[in-house]
Amino acid sequence: MKDVLLYDTTLRDGCQAEDISFTLEDKLRITEKLEELGVDYVEGGFPGSNPRDEEFFKAVKKLKLKQTKIAAFGMTRKPSAKPSQDLSLKTLLDADTPVVTLVGKTWDLHVRDDLRISKKANLEIIADSIAFMKERVDEVIFDAEHFFDGYRSHPEYALECLKAAEEGGAHWIVLCDTNGGRLPSEIRAAIIALKGVISTPLGIHCHNDGDLAVANTLAGVEVGVRQVQGTINGIGERCGNLNLCALIANLHLKMGKRCVDPEQLKKLREVSHFLYELAGDSAFAHKGGMHVAGILKNRETYEHIDPEIVGNRQRVLVSDLAGRSNIVYKAKEYGIDFKSDDHAVHEILRRIKDLESRGYEFEAAEASFELLIQEALGRKKTNFRLLGFRVIDEKRKENEPPISEATIMLEVDGVVEHAAAMGNGPVNALDQALRRALTKFYPSLKEMELLDYKVRVLSSGEGTGASVRVLIESGDKKERWGTVGVSHNVIEASWQAVVDSIDYKLYKDSKP
What we know:
Layout (H helix, E strand, L loop, with lengths): L4 E4 L15 H14 L3 E5 L5 H9 L9 E7 L11 H8 L4 E7 L2 H8 L3 H16 L4 E7 L1 H7 L1 H14 L3 E6 L6 H9 L9 E5 L6 H10 L4 E4 L13 H11 L7 H4 L2 H12 L5 E2 L2 H9 L17 E2 L7 H10 L9 H15 L8 H11 L8 E10 L8 E10 L2 E9 L2 H14 L9 E9 L10 E8 L4 E8 L2 H21 L2
Parallel strand pairs: 1-2, 1-8, 2-3, 3-4, 4-5, 5-6, 6-7, 7-8, 9-10
Antiparallel strand pairs: 11-12, 12-13, 14-15, 15-16
């Protein structure tokens, strides 16, 4: 029997890290690797938040997992709905997993400033949400969000929240240091205080904002915690989560706590490197929709210090994990005041989720995202119309580099322009030809440079026929910006990103 059970949230909490975007195939391969490592639970994602997670819960059933249980993650019910009427709980049941993890508020600040309900109402939400799920799934885990901050602020109420979860029938109560701001001594003292008060087995979920996630988790295990939640290599929102690789080694080798078999321990390096290969200034970068909704109401809900104190700044990321709050926040950065219920917000969010399910990624391509907003508002200008292009790669001798040439024909305000250019590769040649054709009409394009170019294969199982994502970074004398394109054809994906880059430059120049 194991002394400590391992719960991996790389596929959900880990995906909230900046520049992390796993394909469905990636997620399935990671799941298989995690079982090889001996992980007991794999949290597959947030059903209903994006198409990729929905597809994962269907596809993972085909894997022949022997030990690892798949968990679906979601929130306790909305204050306005009964459990049987709550769409979020229904979506969790539709995922059809043996384990469901419900996150609920245990910090009175969140109840007051985020949920904006009474403390008693929050206790009812925790208890009846868990009771509802317990009747329908094999195992219910309650993630006590911000427990350690709540215990520090109002210990009596934080304990009441745990008692509500226990009364609801939770199989596990997981204590969360969600902001990653507490110290090992605080973690230890809070858990010791639960002895004789809470009989449900305890887990712990620590973030790494103070670089103490491993230390805090080990402190929890020392005083009786039996489940640990974290991610491979510690990837996650802001400064990341508990690094399970470091924790497993410390538990097994330093504390003598059995969490994996000796043969599985030998796979640590392999799994760590595997994740790094797939994953390819994030301390205050918020990606999850729930997090952004909180910080819009009160910064302290998900930031344990003011970012500016350490010379940083608060940022919000946009992805298929975004909610309406992310769109509202980002639009405000661009000088657009949306309300969360505006039709344009719903349309932008729908389009992002659709595009990301096809392989697009906007975290490193905010220029493409800003153009998407302008398109949703009907403000995006058509700067030119493509009539056609051709790219030729020719290699004449084995020991000489190939020659790349591109020709393009386009129309600007009824005027047809034809141009050709050579380049050190097909994308460079196409970029040069496009700008040569457009500079006559838009002289400011002479200032623009293509600064970086990255290609990511999205579906490795298809070999050379796989879809690819192209990320391009461009710049001028004032700033740099990123754009994205996706296609089975690398030239087409590059074309999309190059056109967005030029459109953004012209859009930026037209702003007062």
